[in-house]
Design a protein that fits this description.
- This protein has 171 residues and is of the alpha+beta class.
- The protein is 33% helix and 15% strand.
- Helix 3 packs across helix 6.
- The protein starts with a strand and ends with a helix.
- 42% of the residues are buried.
- Keywords: 2Fe-2S, Iron, Iron-sulfur, Metal-binding, Oxidoreductase.
Length: 171
């Protein structure tokens, strides 16, 4: 059984007939040849598949695509283009926030989503007082990005890239 599903992927509207068990990650990679989101653990533990779904960061390996009919999906590849990069993409390049690059698209999408959450005043586990707006300390950034793993250990440079972007125009 296939279910008709409409999605907007990186600004392009697509209509697909999908198996209701198919994840958003598999739809992106297997049906749309969009390899920006990476398949790491396929269990929601590494963050390599992070995309922005209607502006919120999600683990696409845990999302059933048909459940998001009509949604707007932005991958790291859709944030900016060569010559017109998103500030977060540029900061990752400027601060060498990657090594092998496998986790980078998920890190970038998560960082953009995280800064949006922060701008909305959402507290994290390390926010000292949830009744006041949090400050973007290094501990806050680390906690908020803790779902995105980097096997190469580029965390210090990722932190610097996120901090620089946050001090500019993050979204």
């Amino acid at each position: 059984m296939s279910i008709p599903t409409r999605l907007t992927i990186d600004g392009e509207a697509v209509e697909l007939a999908l198996d209701p068990r198919e994840t958003l990650l598999d739809t992106l990679r297997d049906r749309l040849d969009n390899f920006s989101a990476k398949k790491g653990c396929d269990h929601g533990q590494c963050g390599a598949c992070t995309v922005l779904l209607d502006g919120q960061r999600v683990l696409s390996c845990l999302c059933l695509a048909v459940s998001h009919d009509g949604a707007d999906v932005v991958t790291a590849g859709g944030l900016g283009q060569p010559g017109d990069l998103h500030p977060m993409q540029q900061a990752f390049i400027d601060h060498d926030g990657l090594q092998c690059g496998y986790c980078t698209p998920g890190q970038i999408c998560s960082a953009v989503g995280m800064l949006r959450e922060f701008a909305q005043g959402m507290p994290s586990h390390v926010t000292p007082d949830i009744n006041t707006a949090p400050t973007l300390s290094d501990d806050e950034i680390r906690e908020r990005m803790s779902g995105n793993l980097c096997r190469c250990g580029a965390y210090a440079n990722i932190l610097t890239a996120i901090r620089e972007t946050a001090e500019g125009d993050p979204v």
